[in-house]
Amino acid sequence: MSPEIHQTKDGSSTLYSSQFDQFYHNPNGAASESLYVFFETSGLNRYLKSAESLTILEIGFGTGLNFLLLLDLVKTYNLSIPIKFYSIEAFPIDPQVAEEINFSDHLKNPELNILLPEIFSELKSGINLIKPFDNLPIELHLFVGNFEDFTPENLYTDFIFHDPFSPDVNPELWTSEVFEKLYHWSSSEAMLTTYCAASKARGAMCAAGWHVAKTRGALGKREMTIASSSKEKLSDFKSVNEKLLAERYRNNDF
Asked: 10-48 burial by CB neighbour count: b if 16+ within 10 A, else e?
């Protein structure tokens, strides 16, 4: 069944998945939460203003919201640096559903919203390279399939958007094995952010070698999680007891 379209409280769209019995985004504000978690808290907004290149890896392409928000920033900042956006999606939505999704009110360049149906058209299993977008210097590498089948070569990402369904309904994307792969695909100062604050998810990150911290969550959520391959990158956040969480995870003590 196709997911149902809903309007969140900030006016942006989300979908409800009957398969996972969960919304794709926070019902209090899809765009607002994404901007806070993946662009502001991660430091990506600041990074873009001085970067010479950018590589992002997203787990869970969903509605394409995060990619659209990135396009909007690149156009707003008039960036010319090379940008690669990798994303993994096991269940891409239909182009007809994408036509009904609206993020325009949260884009400084609302005309970008019409690109969504084009992105979801004629997708095939495996990697789909899609470019250009409104003459912006971005390549979208959209992998249609399961995470375990994604085997990129020479991927060293600067930012990871960990945005699958929650550990309660999609636990296979919150394991230490997953976070070990993400660590292997990361640069020496990569930042990983997620809306999730579950101790077990943090334990999986710690067991995989990530440095992990927590900070205030978005839209009424008490906390979210931020991780990095560099401990210094987390100096502005509240650290967790990485050794204890890793040990608890390995002992299945959650």
From this structure: bebbbbebeebeebbbbbebbbbbbbbbbbebbbbeeeb
